[in-house]
Structures are given as C-alpha cells and as structure tokens.
Write a structure and sequence with these properties.
The protein is α/β, with parallel strands linked by helices and 393 residues long. The protein is 39% helix and 15% strand. Strands 2-8-7-6-5-3-4 form a 7-stranded mixed β-sheet, sandwiched between helices. Strands 11-12-14 form a 3-stranded antiparallel β-sheet. A two-stranded parallel ribbon has the order 1-13. It starts with a helix and ends with a helix.
C-alpha cells in the first residue's frame, strides 16, 4: 500500500512550524503515541498507579506482541528497557567472558557500548575491530578469517550514528551462526527505518531505543534475546521482583525469558506509548517507510553533493536515512545553530560518541540530518538551500 503522507503529517502537528531532521536523535512522536501516554498518565492520576496497571494490562502487554511482530520472534523473547544503552548493557553483562576471550566489533560502535567493551578489555578480554572493506562496511572475508574458537561475541552497530552506513547485518549473521560465538546487534538507528527480522539476521540479541526512527517516547527501549541461548548465559546481575523470584531466605531464581532483564519500576505510560509507536510503524508498513526514506535521503545527498564547500561524510554501499556532512569554514555545532534559526532541526554528534569511526577518520564532529518518512520534498529542498546559503558565506 502506498504511504498516506497527508494522514501521517496530520498525525504530526509539528510539521506546521518546524522541519525536523533530528530523527536520528529524537523524532516527533505521532499523535496516537502522545494521546496514549497522556491518557495513561491521566488514568494513574484518577485511580492510582497500581490500579491503572491492572486496568490497562492488555495495553501494557501489547508492547511484547507488537515487538514480536516487528522482529518476527516470540513475545517471551522481548524485554522492555528505558533506553537502547540499558538494553545493550543488560545483554552484554550476561555473556560469559573471561580473560583471553575475543570480542569482534565494527567501526561504528557507540560510546555507551564502547564503555562496556573497554571495561571488558581491562579484565583481559581482547576487543578487536573488524577491518572495513573499501566502502566502509565490515569486510566479510576478514571476519570469516577472524572467527576462531576464542571468539565469544560479535557485536555490530547496524547503522553508525555519524556515517549513515548500513552494515551487512544479515551476511554477518550467516557467518557467525555456525560458530559458537554469540551475535549482538545494536539496531538503535535501524529500528523504524526498515524491516528487521531476527530469524533472517540470525542475531542472538538485538536492541533499540523508542525515541529515534521508531517515533516512540523518550525513556523507552527494547531488548530481544533469543530463547534458545539462555542456558549459555549468566543470570542478570541486577534484578528485582519483576526479573527474579526470591525463593527462600538465601536463594533466588531469575525468570525465564527476556523479561528477566526488566525492573518492575519504569514509566508505564511510556511503555504503552512504545507499543503504540511500533503498531503505528507496522500499520504504515516498514517497506513503505524504507522506500520513502531512501528517496528523501537520496534527494538530500544529491543536493548537498552539488554545493561547493560541503563535504559529505556518509560511508557504505547501502546508505540509511542519516545524512552527514560539514561546511567549510564552520564547525558542525555552528551550522546546526544557524539552521535552527530557520526552524530546521539537525544535530552535531562529536567524535567522543564514536571514536572507532569519526575519531579514526580525524573528524571532530559532523552535521547530521536524520530524514524520515513524514517529511516532504519541499522540506528537504529547503534544508539543502539553507546549507547552500551558509556555504556561500
């Protein structure tokens, strides 16, 4: 079905006043998501938090079935998180890693993930970056050669926050699958951009945030953990009555399933909102979203490539809806500030957020436009014209 742009924009009232290209940072939640969160909070105010949870149990549980539909897995393999970083850490901490083990990572890792990797390195775990091919993605031949019996984990960021590149996640999964290594996929920037199928990806873990291209509330995230690997993992270190049972005075048992990674206290309204956001994307269709995103971001890249003084920094044979660039004579935050004055919202991620990528490329920061399907061609053209005007200064 073709995407109904008029209906989508009617659900996104902010488009009347701003052109929001910061969807790779935090997107604009559609009206049904906002309404669901407010309605739930209002119910808590009317009858109490515990009573609201009991009354709206089906809406809260919808998060799990919606997440399972999105990823093609079982609801029991889905856990709610308060961020992508929390979901990623909760995965990483249960993987048995010892001194001498090897962890292979991509060049696009995010700082929150890197901090966990660096702490593991301090314990004697070898953290190794998989060499990149000529267009920037993981070199699959090199990865195949690196996959020996000491490799315990392959951790890949699906789309880098500062390079627009889509990693060949499915091909990586096909290489890792026959080995004893686990495969962790950070799909923080991918979820909501295009379809994700954990069976095709063959990943053991997948995490994402709600606030980016999924258009959910801030303070939400999702963790997928393959049920068949649970017996290979350590129990979670951080648990409460939601994630474990205190079975006797000095014994406890973690719950089976991905919910063992959850705490009992979080924003229940936001959880309902993320379920609605996932349903909203599924109703539109991830294939339709991906097609429109490719058209809009391609239009922007083509326009910016024609501007003297603008350098595009995107990598990859296959590029996402994230477009990164710099303007000669201006640092990235200044460009973002000048564009903001014209109600054009972008961001300027720095090398400190992704040292394996921007740091090794010698780029201090980039201007980042995260294009999304609710935008129209006029907004894309207006952004390109505004960047051209800055470059002419």
């Amino acid at each position: 079905m073709p995407l109904d742009l008029a209906a989508v924009r009617a659900d996104t009232p902010a488009v009347a006043t701003v052109a929001h290209f910061n969807n790779s940072g935090s997107s604009l939640p559609p009206r049904p998501v906002v309404d669901a969160c407010i309605d739930y909070l209002r119910l808590e105010a009317e009858i109490g938090g515990y009573e609201a949870a009991a009354d709206r149990a089906d809406d809260l549980d919808r998060f799990y079935s919606a997440g399972a539909q999105l990823l093609n897995c079982a609801p029991e393999e889905i856990a709610f998180a308060t961020s992508a970083g929390q979901a990623w850490w909760r995965s990483f901490e249960v993987i048995p890693l010892a001194a001498g083990d090897r962890v292979l990572v991509s060049s696009s890792e995010y700082q929150a993930n890197a901090f966990a990797l660096l702490q593991a390195r301090d314990r004697g775990v070898s953290i190794e970056t998989i060499p990149s091919g000529p267009t920037g993605e993981v070199d699959l031949d090199q990865l195949a050669e690196m996959l020996d019996s000491r490799v315990r984990l392959v951790a890949i960021t699906h789309i880098g926050l500062g390079n627009g590149m889509i990693q060949p996640a499915e091909e990586i999964g096909a290489l890792v699958g026959p080995t004893d290594a686990l495969y962790m996929l950070d799909s923080c920037q991918a979820a909501g951009q295009f379809p994700l199928d954990v069976q095709s990806l063959q990943c053991d873990f997948l995490s994402f945030t709600g606030r980016k291209f999924m258009r959910g509330p801030r303070g939400t995230g999702l963790l997928y953990e393959r049920a068949s690997i649970i017996d290979q993992l350590n129990p979670p270190r951080h648990v409460d009555g939601r994630s474990a049972t205190w079975t006797s005075a000095f014994e406890w048992q973690p719950h089976r399933g991905a919910a063992r990674h959850e705490f009992g206290e979080y924003s229940y309204a936001a959880k309902v909102g993320l379920g609605i956001a996932i349903d909203y994307a599924l109703d539109i269709g991830l294939d339709a979203i991906a097609e429109r995103n490719a058209m809009l971001s391609g239009r922007l890249r083509t326009a910016l490539a024609e501007v003297d003084g603008v350098t595009l920094h995107d990598l990859g044979k296959h590029k996402s809806a994230i477009v990164t660039f710099n303007v000669d004579g201006f640092d990235a935050p200044k460009v973002v500030s000048l564009l903001s004055e014209q109600r054009l919202h972008l961001s300027a991620p720095e090398a400190t957020a992704t040292q394996f990528d921007l740091g090794t490329r010698g780029i201090d920061a980039v201007v980042r436009a995260g294009v999304h399907y609710f935008q129209n061609e006029d907004e894309v053209d207006r952004l390109a014209q505004a960047v051209r005007a800055i470059a002419r200064r």
